Amino acid sequence: MTTSYPSTSVEAREEVGKSVCVLSYKPLKIDEIIKSVSDDGAGATALFIGTTRNSYQGKVVTRLEYQAYSKLAIKTMRDIIRTAHQSVIRSAHHPAPATVPSIISCAVHHRLGAVPVGEPSIVVAVSSPHRKEAFVACEQIVEEVKQKVQIWKREYYEGEKEEEAEWKANSS
User: Fold this and answer.
1) Which of 12, 42, 124, 128 lies at 20 to 30 Å from 97 by C-alpha?
2) pLDDT per residue as tens digits for the range 67-109
């Protein structure tokens, strides 16, 4: 089966300081994503991996397909990372000089195209001097990507015709 995608749903990459946002048709390489946020000043790295599950509301899922308005989606992802860097503050139990950031680096990678059951569709990694800030930033980024980024998902179910697969906007 050959699938063609709209010319607006293309691979994209944007760096924001030490952080990065990526849209890719290729399988996401989790080890490389983790390594991309590693830093000697990081005492913690939080990781979220969203995978295609095999069922949804009692139906057997065979695959998901993602499309994006990539030009706008990558900018939205960049803004989400910037917001996380600015809004996640250091825990009161770990005061530090203002020169030490609460977040060191973030990576947000989202898959485009067909994503089979069991494969990652999104990976978010955040490094920080302390675990609390890494967890808070990781969750904030995942939730905002789901709510704001211009990516749509099509769900394919066992026993249903391909043309009946439904497109759904990202949501929480």
Assistant:
1) 124
2) 999 999 999 999 999 999 888 876 555 555 555 578 899 999 9
Q: What CA–CA distance (Å, rounded) separates 120 from 146?
A: 15
| 48 bridge partner residues | 124
C-beta of residue 80 within 8 angstroms of C-beta of residue 144 = yes
DSSP 1: -
Instruction: Please state, in angstroms and rounded to a whole number, the distance separating the CA atoms of residues 36 and 18.
Output: 9
Give me the long-range contacts of 142-147 (CB less than 8 A, separation at least 24).
Answer: 142/48, 142/50, 143/172, 144/80, 144/83, 144/84, 145/77, 145/80, 145/108, 145/110, 145/170, 146/170, 146/171, 146/172, 147/171, 147/172
Q: How far apart are CA 47 and CA 172, in angstroms?
A: 18
